[in-house]
Amino acid sequence: LKELMQTGDAIIIYESPFRIVKLLTDIADIESERNIVVGRELTKLHEEIIEGTAEELKNDFSSRASIKGEFAIFVSGAKKTQLSDESNQKVAGKSVGELANIILNRYPNDIEVLGVYAHALYNEGKFKESYAVSKNLVSLPAGSRDAIFIHIKNCIALKYNDEAWNYASSLYSKDSSNSEIIQAYIDVSIRTGRNQNASRLINSLLSNSPSSLMKSFLYYERSYLQGTEAGQLSDLRSSLIANPRNSDALFRMYQIYLRRRDYRKAQYYLKQVISLNPSNENYIKLNSELESLLK
């Protein structure tokens, strides 16, 4: 728990009534002022949603004569809104997006929960819904840089290329050393046909011994600039050597082998994508279509 909270990311936890006080006590001991939303018996008759600091909620539940029901606890992020569990696993039978939506019904203007909701919708492949949320976030005075990143991703997914470029180029002009900004800038450059610009930047960064995650990203992006399928596969393999969990590179491998009609290899890569994104209905549907082709 301490390690999770030290990441500064938002966390959603499922807990029983027998351990809720201990959990809140542990959170308060780590960081008593961290904001928390506790949901009890969500979507049921006796639903209860309470918001406060870790210390306040610990005292609230410690004073109760009895505690019943199942609990979902949203622990706010200390630095930026991002899901700690990127696999988007379900909690109490509900996805992170569904839990965030329940909280938003009570607190519709909670910027942090809106950020979590936008990320969750994007991870589930619901780009239009995520775009609507992220568009609202970036228009708010208190909107974070992370809100801009998820909005750029949504713009790319929906092919709103001009809008994506406006946000990415603006960020890059202000800070060209931030790794997340660099990634957004390269991604959008390629999507908007600024290939020469992207190629120069990618090759420059690769020559400077980047981190494994950055190297994986750079090879993945460079695969789009290769003129031959062999070149694309070479860069994608380099991307996956640097980071075997690069979902984008895995999905692109699936697409190439699907185009080749090598359905077994296509499914090999698609199943890895699904293991990293188990709630994405689009990927699950693609796998079902592959199963039909393999029969």
What's the topology here?
Elements: H1 2-6, E1 11-15, H2 20-30, E2 35-40, E3 48-53, H3 54-62, E4 71-75, H4 96-106, H5 111-123, H6 127-139, H7 145-157, H8 161-174, H9 179-191, H10 195-206, H11 212-223, H12 229-242, H13 247-259, H14 263-276, H15 281-294
Antiparallel strand pairs: 1-4, 2-3, 2-4
Helix pairs in contact: 2-3, 4-5, 5-6, 5-7, 6-7, 7-8, 7-9, 8-9, 9-10, 9-11, 10-11, 11-12, 12-13, 13-14, 14-15
Question: TL;DR?
Answer:
The protein is α+β, with helices and mostly antiparallel strands and about 300 residues long. The chain has helices at about 1-5, 20-30, 55-60, 95-105, 110-125, 125-140, 145-155, 160-175, 180-190, 195-205, 210-225, 230-240, 245-260, 265-275, 280-295; strands at about 10-15, 35-40, 50-55, 70-75.
Written description of the protein model:
There is one protein chain. The protein is α+β, with helices and mostly antiparallel strands and about 300 residues long. Helices cover about 60% and strands about 5% of the residues. It contains 15 helices and four strands. Strands 1-4-2-3 form a four-stranded antiparallel sheet, with helices on both faces. Strand 2 and strand 3 (about 50-55) form a beta hairpin. Helix 2 (about 20-30) packs antiparallel against helix 3 and helix 7 runs parallel beside helix 9. The N and C termini lie far apart (about 45 Å). The model is unreliable at about 80-90 (pLDDT under 50).
Main structural class: alpha+beta
Question: How far apart are the first and last residues' alpha carbons, in Å?
Answer: 45 Å
- C-alpha Rg, in Å? 21 Å
* Biggest sheet architecture: 4 strands, antiparallel
Helical percent range? 55-70%
Instruction: Note the beta-strand portion.
Output: 5-15%
Number of helical runs? 15
**Which blocks of ≥5 consecutive residues have pLDDT under 50?**
79-88
- E-strand count: 4
H/E topology pattern = HEHEEHEHHHHHHHHHHHH
Please, what is the average pLDDT?
86
- Approximate shape: globular
Trace the largest sheet across and list its strands.
1-4-2-3
